[in-house]
Design goal:
Elements: H1 8-20, H2 33-52, H3 54-58, H4 67-92, H5 98-106, H6 124-141, H7 150-178, H8 182-201, H9 213-218, H10 226-244, E1 254-256, E2 261-263, H11 269-276, H12 283-296, H13 298-316
Antiparallel strand pairs: 1-2
Helix pairs in contact: 2-4, 4-7, 6-7, 6-8, 6-10
This protein binds benzoyl coenzyme A.
C-alpha cells in the first residue's frame, strides 16, 4: 500500500500553523520557496557581515596599546569569525552551498552590513565599535533569537551572549579613555561623532522604504521593524552616552515625554543607499582583502580535500 504525498495546500497549512503557534520551522520541514530564499539572503548577509566585520577592528590588533587590550581584541575578532561560521552552517541547512555564498560575497552579488565600510582611524574606534556597533547588533539580534527558523534562532542565542561581552569590553575601554587625558577624551568624542549615524543606519532603511520587512515579519523571521529597533537603540544609548560623558552628534535628539521615547534627526538615507551600492569609504578595500584572503587560502582547501579523499579511500579498502 502506498500513502499519497500531502499536497502543497496541506503542507502550506502545516507551515502556517507552525508559525502561528510560535513553533520553529526546522530544515527538514516543508517551507515555501520564498521563505527559504529570504532566509538564505538574510542569514548569508549576516554571515558575510561577521566575516567582513573582522577587518575594521582586526587592523588594530598589532597596534593595541597593552597586552591586555591585545588579548581582548584578539578574542573578540576570533568570536566574529566563529559567528560567521555558525551562520554559514545555518545557511547550509537551507540548502545553500558555502563556497557559492563566499563567491557571491566576493563578486558583490550578496550584501554585508553597511557599517563595515567605514574606516577605523584611532584606537577609540575599537571602543566605539564595541559600544555602538555591537550595541546595535544586540538590539537587532536579541529578537532574532525568537526567529521562526530553528537553526538561525539557536545560532543567535550564542552569538548574543558573545556580543554582550563585546559591547561591555567596548564600553569599558571608552570609560578608561574618558578617565584619561584631554587628548584621549577628544579621540573618543571624535569616534562617537563618526560612528553614531552609521550605527543608526545599520538597522536598515526606514519602514516605508523597507521592501522585505512586511513579509519577513509575517513569517516571523524578523520580529520588529527597522524603525522600532532603531528607536530602541537610541533610547538605550542616550543614558549610556551621558554616563560616559560624550555628546551624541544630533541637535534634534530630545526626550519626548508624550511618547516616552527620544525624538531624533533623520539619518542620511542617500548615504546608506550609496554605501549599500558599493560606494562607501572602504567597500573596495574590504572586498579586495576578502578576495586576497580567499585566494591565499586556496592551498589549504586543496590540501584538506586531498586529505579527506585519501581518508575515504583508505576507509573503503
Ligand atoms: N547594510 O527591506 P530591508 C556584527 C539591504 S555583524 C547593508 O529593510 P531586511 C558585528 C537589505 O539587505 C551583524 N544592506 O531588508 C560583526 C535589502 O537588500 P536585498 C550584522 C542593508 O532584510 C563584527 C535592502 O537593503 N547584522 O554585529 O528586511 C564586528 C532593503 O532593506 C542594510 C545582521 O546582519 C545595511 N545596514 O532588513 C562587530 C542582522 N540594511 O537583500 C559587529 C540580520 C538593509 O533585498 N539582518 N539592507 O537586496 C537583519 O536583521 C535584516 O536583514 C536587516 C535588513 C535589518 C539588516
Amino acid at each position: 500500500m502506498t500513502t499519497a504525498a500531502p499536497d502543497t495546500t496541506e503542507l502550506q497549512r502545516t507551515f502556517d500553523d507552525t508559525i502561528a503557534a510560535e513553533q520553529r520551522i526546522e530544515p527538514r520541514d516543508w517551507m515555501p520557496e520564498g521563505y527559504r530564499r529570504t532566509l538564505i539572503r538574510q542569514v548569508a548577509q549576516h554571515a558575510h557581515s561577521e566575516i567582513i566585520g573582522m577587518q575594521p577592528e582586526g587592523v588594530w590588533i598589532t597596534r593595541a596599546p597593552s597586552l591586555r587590550r591585545k588579548a581582548i581584541l584578539m578574542a573578540k575578532v576570533q568570536d566574529e569569525a566563529g559567528h560567521g561560521l555558525y551562520l554559514y552552517s545555518a545557511a547550509e541547512t537551507l540548502g545553500a552551498d558555502r563556497a557559492d555564498l563566499t563567491a557571491k560575497l566576493i563578486d558583490g552579488a550578496q550584501k554585508y552590513s553597511s557599517i563595515f565600510n567605514y574606516p577605523t582611524l584611532s584606537y577609540a574606534d575599537v571602543g566605539v565599535i564595541g559600544w555602538l556597533v555591537d550595541g546595535a547588533a544586540i538590539c537587532n539580534q536579541v529578537p532574532l533569537c525568537r526567529s521562526s527558523f530553528g537553526p538561525y534562532a539557536r545560532a543567535m542565542i550564542r552569538v548574543c551572549k558573545e556580543e554582550s561581552f563585546h559591547q561591555r569590553q567596548g564600553y569599558e575601554l571608552l570609560m578608561t579613555m574618558m578617565g584619561g587625558t584631554d587628548a584621549q577624551r577628544a579621540m573618543v568624542q571624535d569616534a562617537v561623532d563618526r560612528w553614531w549615524w552609521p550605527s543608526l543606519m545599520m538597522f536598515g532603511p526606514p519602514d516605508d522604504r523597507s521592501p522585505n520587512s512586511g513579509q519577513s515579519m509575517a513569517w516571523r523571521i524578523k520580529r520588529h521593524t527597522n524603525d522600532e529597533l532603531r528607536q530602541r537603540f537610541v533610547d538605550m544609548s542616550v543614558p549610556q552616552a551621558q554616563a560616559l560623558g560624550v555628546s551624541l552628534p544630533d541637535s534634534q535628539l530630545i526626550w519626548n515625554e508624550q511618547r516616552k521615547s527620544h525624538d531624533f534627526g533623520t539619518p542620511d538615507w542617500a548615504e546608506l543607499a550609496a554605501v549599500i551600492a558599493g560606494d562607501g569609504p572602504c567597500n573596495v578595500e574590504r572586498i579586495t582583502n576578502r578576495r586576497n584572503a580567499h585566494d591565499d587560502g586556496a592551498w589549504v582547501r586543496e590540501a584538506a580535500m586531498a586529505f579527506a579523499a585519501r581518508e575515504r579511500q583508505e576507509a573503503g579498502q
